[in-house]
Amino acid sequence: MPIVTVTRRLRFNAAHRVHNPALSDEQNAALFGKCNNKNWHGHNYVLEVSVSGEIDAVSGYVVDLGRVRDIVEREVIEKTDHRNLNMEVDYLSGLNPTSENIIVAMWGVIEPALKPARLQRLRLWETENNYVEYEGE
Amino acid sequence: MPIVTVTRRLRFNAAHRVHNPALSDEQNAALFGKCNNKNWHGHNYVLEVSVSGEIDAVSGYVVDLGRVRDIVEREVIEKTDHRNLNMEVDYLSGLNPTSENIIVAMWGVIEPALKPARLQRLRLWETENNYVEYEGE
Amino acid sequence: MPIVTVTRRLRFNAAHRVHNPALSDEQNAALFGKCNNKNWHGHNYVLEVSVSGEIDAVSGYVVDLGRVRDIVEREVIEKTDHRNLNMEVDYLSGLNPTSENIIVAMWGVIEPALKPARLQRLRLWETENNYVEYEGE
Amino acid sequence: MPIVTVTRRLRFNAAHRVHNPALSDEQNAALFGKCNNKNWHGHNYVLEVSVSGEIDAVSGYVVDLGRVRDIVEREVIEKTDHRNLNMEVDYLSGLNPTSENIIVAMWGVIEPALKPARLQRLRLWETENNYVEYEGE
Amino acid sequence: MPIVTVTRRLRFNAAHRVHNPALSDEQNAALFGKCNNKNWHGHNYVLEVSVSGEIDAVSGYVVDLGRVRDIVEREVIEKTDHRNLNMEVDYLSGLNPTSENIIVAMWGVIEPALKPARLQRLRLWETENNYVEYEGE
Amino acid sequence: MPIVTVTRRLRFNAAHRVHNPALSDEQNAALFGKCNNKNWHGHNYVLEVSVSGEIDAVSGYVVDLGRVRDIVEREVIEKTDHRNLNMEVDYLSGLNPTSENIIVAMWGVIEPALKPARLQRLRLWETENNYVEYEGE
Question: For E28-68, what is each residue's pLDDT tens digit?
């Protein structure tokens, strides 16, 4: 049976600062520069959620992407859109919200919520010029 | 010798409905919602065709992408562009034209036509927010 | 007071054929070629809705774009998305659904629904390579 | 002599909240919804700066777009990128940072700085789905 | 009768250098910097061709965009694509190929060729960050 | 520890011709068609540089993408932007500048310069319709 990967893109707009609370203000400024601005900045993030599996013989789908969208909207987007990533998002609590830390935290939320569908890959665009990818390993 | 993957993007505009002829109308409506509309809807599809291999020492190409384009235009695009995917496309005959089923059927046409070049991956965008990928396994 | 134009983009996916019912099948085929395919084709349309006016001193908005989106979703998108433009859309009834005819018909629906906001321009993308614009004159 | 319009696109990432300090918190929440979140959100803004004029016979340019970029970078982008639009940007001081108010304020900074070149139009994208335009009137 | 503007996008890839042959090499270098590199550089240009007019009652078109595409392909694109803009393009002969000079020269070719259709606007993208517009005046 | 891949996109505009100096002019013309034009053509290239690794516990980064950008700007972009790929780029010297040969040559420059960070993948877009990928094997 062929294995196909299906992907849904979703968007959220959020404020953040790159900041490690275990470091001093001077260390944070030296390490993160303008991304550490204490008054925040923000991005239009794009998240791509990819699920892999065999094609279901009845539906012709690997998974209903409408269901994927609804789950990710509920579990991730609604908690994150128009929010402050350092202060307001439960699954990012205590984390320095770099794209790397965000994507791994989102995997932790999305992967169990999508089961039995198998989450194959997340890709998170912070700007049109940089993105991160994670495959759960 | 380095292995490089080269990709060509192509477009086609088509009508379809997501519909499994083995199910009743009620089952189809319940399973596929507005995508099952009996009067059709349609998309601007984008197909990415990726070929992998060693770089030829004479041409500097893995494969002539103009030749890839011509083959895929002839074998897939001309038969599909401005067509009805449920009714008019020979290689989709009898299939429920979900993106998953389309991409596997296209692989069956493109992979032998490109030989001896090695088809590595197909990616099919149905909208700017969802796409499927298949690597022939 | 400064006059600013604000724009919201919305999407719909639909089937259509370019066909003038007042002509014979032969005339339609000669005039419209593959766009006249009797079994339909389709597109991912993008509609840009632009409203002009003075900035409201209280809200800082020309118009609440969320309200614009809701009105256009209700009046145009919900009636058109995943539909057949020749058969199923009340405000296109009897029209040959070229982009030109669609945009003028959409103006006739959207312009009164947005009042007292002033509709300034519609832009409708049929594919990434062609679009039409209308300013109500 | 032909009149040509030349445009340069520039980017900045910023935090903001839509908030009118003359209103109560309840009024702000009612009027602006999630855009009023007191902990901020943010966007990847794109600014398009358009200058019109005759083509200079020596340079073949209406204006050196490198000079336009340098002026707008210095006068607007450096003061705004990775900043909080409600708190940190001098030319937005006291303003509710809706896209409408931002674009008019930016016009006030850019128009005199570009002289004798004639600023024709600003277009500001807040997200890929909404933008505002201003021509100085 | 409503006036609608219809637009077709076309692409060409070309080499050029920004260079005024009436100036010395030193003057050219001072004025144009790296864009004056004597060994050329190049771009993926995108040209948008806009035609305005009443909608034809029989076709539902302002103009057949397939005919627009064919004319512009023949008159402009085939002469320009994969060419050197300083050396090989008849309608640019003797011109410094800035985007401003290119767009006015293209207008001179396209405007008469499209008649009786009325060319309304050309837009030429040199990169994704800069473009020029011309309306024939 | 999770392994994440981070990617930075960069741009350069360059002239080239596809030409193998070991072949005759007739053979080159037959093999490469208009891409062999002796007066050059050019492209707006986009390069995506992907680095993989564990997330650093202090910075929350796999690697500082600002550092990646600076290295790639210095080692590759500044030597290539607004240049002739056949004549002026040291790391392409003697090569037929197909996208395949360019990407392998860029790997040879970027991979050691980024160490100890691990270069995972390069993707090079020649036009919006074709790109190549290389993972160093």
Answer: 999 999 999 999 999 999 999 999 999 999 999 999 999 99
Mean pLDDT score across all residues of chain E: 98
Quick check: E6 and C99 in contact, CB under 8 A? yes
Q: Which of A132, A134, A135 to mutate to test the interface with F (most CBs of F within 10 A)?
A: A132
Question: Which fold would CATH assign to domain F3-134?
Answer: Tetrahydropterin Synthase; Chain A (3.30.479)
C-E C-beta contacts closer than 8 Å = 60
F124: closest chain B residue by CA: B6
Round to whole Å and give the CA distance between C44 and B127. Answer: 7
User: Cβ contact (<8 Å) for D129 and C8?
Assistant: yes
Q: Low-confidence residues of chain B, pLDDT below 50?
A: none
pTM (two decimals): 0.97
Residue C100 catalytic?
A: no
Is F55 in Cβ contact with A129 (below 8 Å)?
no
Q: Point out which residues pair with C15 in neighbouring strands.
A: C42, C84
Q: Count the alpha carbons within 13 Å of B93 in the hemisphere toward its beta carbon.
A: 5
ipTM confidence: 0.96
For residue A35, give Cα distances in angstroms to A15, B4, D41: 11, 36, 15
- By Cβ distance, the residue of A33, A100, A135 closest to F6 is A100
Q: Are strands D3-16 and E130-134 parallel, antiparallel or unpaired?
A: antiparallel
Contact state of E3 with C137 under an 8 Å Cβ cutoff = yes
**Residue E21 preceded by cis peptide, ω within 30:** no
Strand partners, A3: A54
Contacts of D25 (CB under 8 A, 6+ apart): none
Indicate the residue type of D8: R
